[in-house]
Amino acid sequence: MRISVIGCGYLGAVHAVCMAKLGHDVVGIDIDERKIEALHAGRAVFYEPGLPELLREVLGTGRLKFSSSMSDAKGAQLHFLCVGTPQQEGKYATDMRYVDEAFASLLDSLEPGNVVVGKSTVPVGTAARLADALAERSPDTVLAWNPEFLREGFAVKDTLSPDRFIYGVPDGEPGAWATAALDEVYASALALGTRRLIADYATAELVKVAANSFLATKISFINAMAEVCDVAGADVTVLAEALGMDDRIGRRYLNAGIGFGGGCLPKDIRAFIARADELGAHQALTFLREVDDINVRRRVRVVELTRTLVGGSLLGQRITVLGAAFKPDSDDVRDSPALSIAAQLHLNGAEVTVTDPRATLAAQVRFPELTYEPNLETAMLRADALLLLTEWREYQALTPEFAAGLVRRRNILDGRNVLDLHRWRLAGWNFRAIGRPYDSASTDGRAAPKWVAGKPGK
Ligand code: NAD
């Protein structure tokens, strides 16, 4: 099919490349000319595993083009709206400017029979509003809402073989026509048995924000348990293992740590609270405020733990922060808990050096006041404390013996609960973690307790 993808950020660039991989003729459109130039030249503008290779492959087939002009959407049968929906400055609600502007400029390029497909995460009610505008301006076209569930770090895989498709479509003939068009686009994944659910617009929009709210709640739940573990002397990693053995609960998203961040979860739950309020469901989502508060509290907690770790004052302490991205295998630093903690430590007088395999450049743009060192060994040199805040594989593979040869003092805080606490303590490290017992006699050479059987699942 002939497809346009409007907005070539994390979602749109991956979507455009993957649609071309599936055999469609695709034009990716973005108002950011620098982005378009880079993509056109075969350079992915952000780090996403597998994307650069796939981008070059599909550019070579001639099926993928990029443009900064919306008029190049003309001729496409399907138009995917993938522009950003950030949080409004100083408010919880979504900034709808980009969706509204992109939609308005697309109207001139539409032709009878076209399907406009929203993929951006939007406040419930947006699709109905845009469908009304479409009916007025281009009566022979149809709108569908097809929310996206890709995970950064797995975006290519998730786009080529997602776990589900949700189509929000209108009733009757136009709905059947939009469904048929989407089925054709996603034919290969559907043939392999990917589940597909047809819904009305509002339900389709809600699926996305409800899913993100649930995941955020699960993370904040285990982080709340970590707070209790901290005061009760219990171990949240063992608690999570035990909870995860219950199939009704499941083990995923139960890793206590410094909490969630990124360009989706935090702003999506806040936008959902704001939208429910606007619609009159004032009390329905008050629990999400608590979910957000627990999450933000983790960052404060880590600053306090670091202060304790280095002996009571952060002033002049050389702190090395391992990780800037909001998650591993990404260079996305939007609302990154790691960077937020690094900035707070800096404000408290610490000398902070941030390292990350991919995200130091992006981080530098957001927090130019911090010191960045892409090389891990150099970053750790003469540190008074190491803080593991993004669980990149290379940080998980660090050994206490190797790190001891670089740092000035053997202090470490594991903000993601991924290191072997007993091994580090046995090697003489003052080791702190979130929701795990602090043993002041931790460096006395005791072996791991017997109940730590096998490797914790993730
Ligand atoms: P992003 O900021 O990386 O990309 C948005 C892009 O839209 C930018 O390149 C911007 O220049 C472009 N844009 C803005 N106005 C435009 C216009 N008028 N015409 C053409 N392009 C325009 O954002 P993102 O992370 O890709 O997110 C996009 C949407 O997808 C959001 O609603 C987000 O919530 C949702 N989403 C994102 C992810 C993710 O993992 N990033 C996953 C699922 C859903």
**Domain tally:** 2
Proportion of residues in β-strands: 5-15%
| Amino-to-carboxy terminus distance | 39 Å
Mean pLDDT: 95
Number of helices: 18
Unreliable residue stretches: 441-458
Biggest beta sheet attributes: 6 strands, parallel
List strands and helices in order, with pairings:
Blueprint: E1 2-6, H1 10-21, E2 25-29, H2 33-40, H3 51-61, E3 64-67, E4 78-81, H4 97-106, E5 115-118, H5 126-137, E6 142-145, H6 155-160, E7 164-168, H7 172-185, H8 187-191, E8 195-199, H9 201-232, H10 236-244, H11 265-279, H12 286-309, E9 318-322, H13 337-347, E10 351-355, H14 360-366, E11 371-372, H15 376-380, E12 385-388, H16 393-396, H17 400-404, E13 411-414, H18 421-426, E14 430-433
Parallel strand pairs: 1-2, 1-4, 2-3, 4-5, 5-6, 7-8, 9-10, 9-12, 10-11, 12-13, 13-14
Bound molecules: nicotinamide-adenine-dinucleotide.
Nicotinamide-adenine-dinucleotide (NAD) binds at residues 6-12, 29-32, 35, 82-85, 98, 101-102, 120-121, 148, 150, 152, 263-264.
Describe this structure in words.
- There is one protein chain.
- This protein has 458 residues and is an alpha/beta fold.
- It has two domains: 2-199, NAD(P)-binding Rossmann-like Domain (Rossmann fold), CATH 3.40.50; 234-442, NAD(P)-binding Rossmann-like Domain (Rossmann fold, 3-Layer(aba) Sandwich).
- The protein is built from 18 helices and 14 strands.
- A six-stranded parallel beta sheet has the order 3-2-1-4-5-6, with helices on both faces.
- Helix 12 crosses helix 13.
- It is globular, with a radius of gyration of 24 Å.
- It starts with a strand and ends in a 25-residue tail after the last strand.
- The protein binds nicotinamide-adenine-dinucleotide.
- The site of nicotinamide-adenine-dinucleotide has 26 residues, from helix 1 and helix 4.
